[in-house]
Design a protein that fits this description.
The complex is a heterodimer. By secondary structure, chain A is mainly alpha-helical. Chain A has 12 helices and 2 strands. A two-stranded antiparallel ribbon of chain A has the order 1-2. Chain B is mostly helical. Chain B starts with a helix and ends with a helix. The chains are: A mainly alpha, B mainly alpha. The interface between A and B is medium-sized, with 32 and 25 residues.
Chain lengths: 334, 184
């Protein structure tokens, strides 16, 4: 197969997966939120369960005018959603969907993932600054402060897993969980959540903050900042941000599932079957994380800016550093 | 190597495109009249540098550049610019100090120094292949083995700089101010 054909196929796959995943998670968010708040939610679109609601929303966004404010810095304003999307699409490259089903099994998998996802921060800052609107600027500033603060615990929480697995390749980390205790002839797997529950907790909270989801939605706090850095965006460019947020939720959940819950692995199922059910297993584990984050959304009120920074610097960073020290010592001693 | 050989290898064209983009962005960093644009061109220049590292199969260095410089340092730059003043469009403030000649002299001297150092040290070395990069574990063993002392010294100096920065920037409130703040 020529490299150009392979490239075209991959682009097509990604271009299909991101909107589909975005819509699936968006629909789940709508319905779960509605049930948690005892309101019916979308019901009529499409005849039953309101399944067509998001398609209608998508078509609506396509039809809207692509507005660029007079005061905006045009090139920067137009580039910002693209940059946010790059940070998200790049993550799909390293996620292992099954045995031998990793798009690119990089030696530095998890490190690459953390690096590429940090590009999105620049996009958010660009959006906030270039809109030429004080609400957008405030939102962009808050987003930058928040994303810097929570990137550190996110990276540090991963280190414990890397120490245990002895590799940074995401596929290697799954393999390490599959054959944790291996003696001659038999092996017993263990998902890392059992020994890295602290790491999972820090990673999950930090990834919620990286996604700016409630209770960490200070950058777009509707009641104070209209819509934060998204205020001036409309139509297709707004849709880009919107899809990037949901796709990011998907990829960060996939990475959490891979690092802590064993990724595509189920105990007792051989590789030959996992090749087919692996992606479904991974999707199930992702759905678990997505559900919990939607649950968080309707459980906790929004943080205040100082509480948000206190949580990151005074709690999550020390906890994850202690986790690294304990894991490292135990790895050497045991 | 003639031009024919050079043109037959696709990676050369990739290198040419990346190198040109990096150089142009680097120039725009210093010529752009808007300070935020300059910072954004710095992002492009750093991304180009990371791409060159990738072409040399130095994967780890490339991602370190992306994570630390693009993801953290530039974000702090932009944060600092926006928190003080955030000019959209043409910036009225004069960001050009007008001393062109010393700037040209210093940068040319630095370029010659680096070029001379690199060529005299590694001028004859050729890479057998760029497909096999250095594994990260080798890099780690070097940093925490042979070069552990300089590594720790750098860490110590950076920590001292951090503490110093906080000490200079932070002003403790006097007891009267403290009381006033609590009563508010």
């Amino acid at each position: 197969m020529s490299p150009w054909l392979a490239l075209a196929i991959w682009l097509l796959v990604v271009a299909t997966i991101i909107p589909v995943m975005g819509m699936a998670i968006g629909y789940a968010e709508m319905k779960i939120s509605a049930h948690m708040q005892s309101r019916i939610g979308p019901y009529f679109a499409g005849g039953r369960f309101g399944w067509a609601q998001l398609i209608a929303d998508g078509v609506k966004f396509f039809q809207k005018e692509d507005l660029v404010p007079d005061n905006a810095d045009r090139p920067v304003f137009k580039m910002a959603p693209v940059l946010v999307m790059v940070g998200t699409v790049g993550l799909f490259v390293v996620i292992p969907f099954g045995p031998g089903l990793t798009p690119q099994n990089l030696d530095l998998g998890i490190f690459y993932a953390l690096a590429i996802s940090s590009i999105g921060t620049i996009g958010v800052l660009m959006a906030g600054w270039s809109s030429g609107n004080k609400y957008s600027l405030m939102g962009g500033l808050r987003a930058a402060g928040q994303l810097i603060a929570y990137e550190l615990p996110l990276v540090l929480a991963v280190v414990g897993v890397v120490i245990l697995a002895g590799t940074m390749s995401l596929d290697g980390i799954v393999q390490a969980q599959i054959s944790w205790f291996s003696e001659a002839g038999w092996s017993l797997g263990m998902p890392f959540v059992i020994v890295q529950a602290v790491g999972l907790g820090v990673f999950f909270v930090a990834s919620l903050a990286e996604l700016s989801r409630i209770p960490f939605d200070m950058p777009i706090a509707e009641s104070e900042l209209v819509m934060g850095y998204l205020t001036e965006y409309s139509g297709f460019r707004f849709l880009f941000f919107f899809l990037a947020e949901f796709a990011n939720m998907f990829t960060l959940s996939a990475i959490a599932a891979t690092l802590f819950l064993g990724g595509y692995w189920v105990p007792g199922v051989p590789d030959s079957i996992l090749q087919f059910v692996g992606p479904l297993v991974l999707l199930g584990k992702i759905a678990l994380f997505v559900f919990v984050s939607i649950w968080f959304r309707w459980t906790f009120p929004r943080f205040r800016e100082d509480q948000l920074q206190t949580l990151a610097w005074k709690w999550l960073v020390p906890i994850s550093l202690a986790n690294i020290i304990v894991t490292g010592v135990l790895k050497v001693v045991l | 190597m003639g031009f024919e050989d050079w043109a037959a290898e696709p990676i050369n064209w990739v290198f040419l495109a990346v190198a040109l983009a990096t150089t142009v962005s680097g120039l725009r960093v210093v010529t752009s009249p808007n300070v935020v644009h300059a910072a954004l061109f710095l992002v492009a220049a750093l991304a180009g540098t990371a791409a060159i590292f990738l072409l040399l199969a130095a994967e780890f260095l490339a991602w370190v550049l992306v994570l630390v410089y693009i993801g953290a340092v530039i974000v702090l730059f932009l944060f600092g610019i926006m928190i003080t003043r955030a000019p959209t469009g043409r910036d009225e403030a004069e960001v050009d100090h007008g001393r062109r000649l010393p700037a040209v002299l210093v940068s040319t001297a630095l370029f010659i120094l680096l070029l001379w150092g690199l060529v005299s040290q590694w001028g004859d070395t050729t890479l057998d292949s760029v497909t096999a990069g250095t594994p990260t574990s080798v890099l780690a063993e070097g940093l925490l083995g042979r070069f552990v002392f300089p590594f720790e010294v750098v860490g110590f100096v950076l920590l001292a700089a951090l503490v110093g920065g906080i000490t200079i920037a932070r002003r403790d409130l006097s007891p009267a101010e403290e009381k006033e703040r609590e009563s508010r």
